[in-house]
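Database export, one record per block. Field names are fixed; values are copied verbatim from the stored entry.
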Amino acid sequence: MFSCHQTAALLNTEPIITARNMKATITQALHYDNLPSASGLELLGDHYYVVGDDSPYLYRLNKRFEIESQEAIFDTAGFAAGRVAKADKADLEGMTLLQHQGKPYLLMMGSGSAPARRKAYLYNICGDDICKEGAGLQGARIINVDRLYQQLEQQADTLGGGLLNIEGVAAGHGKLYLLQRAIGTGHNVLISYRLADFIPYLLGEPDTELPQPELSYFRLPDLNYLQAGFSGAYVYDDKLFFTASLEDTNDAYADGDVLGSYIGYIPFSWVGRQDTLEVPATLILQSDGKPYTGKAESLVVQKREGKGRYRLVVVSDDDQGGSELLEVVLSEE
């Protein structure tokens, strides 16, 4: 069991990177009226896969970012108006590529912030039978993760007084990573599981126990007494790249005004430390140097272009039923 992403060996030491050393600039922005509320993004070969937090479809884009297809991953009955109602939506806020027995699968997970949002979906890219059991007429296997989320809620330090709000999912280095988004006085938390424990749990294999999490705590930039919160994750090289947004809300359920969006990364040598670390992150800037005011939700790294320079793709949710896709260059000066 391993991630599809190419990874490098972990480093024992990391240079100190601050926001002043980093810059994230948009080089292209595309808007989609027919792809609602993008919240998760993955890359496999020349195709990008996108999910929205209030859509029952998985969208496939080609390398020119054109929508090629969409497939229902769960019941579409509530989608007649073009968006699933807030009270009913699955709120899929994270998606990652897994490999099991040499084949790729997409794992999508709900945020956990309401009863309807405590399911995971395992999508069968290759067309074999592993995900078809429990999928019904749709293309994904549905997994109830309520017990897993209850386990996290019972650990008071996980949330710091906030509500459960899983906003990023990524796999790599033999682990699955979930990002808990800080709301109000809550924490930004990296929750790590061994894939060797997590995949049997997902597949419901006999005598499987709940996987045990490892927790790491991080501090993100703040403004007007509000802290930015994790919103997406992706493993590349020896880093966990993330998106974050600063939203004027103290509620995991309600949206608020977006004050800025960020890109940063966590060196894997920092994972598992007991203290709260201030993680390097920088505002996403438009080509004219002004801050991007959309809500960045997820990202993938296309490639590394020399030392400290990465080309990324980011998806953004406008909270009005549309989405944006951004090409971004992240550099360290």
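Remark 1: Residues 153 and 164 are 7 Å apart (CA to CA).
Remark 2: The chain is about 5% helix and 50% strand.
End of record.
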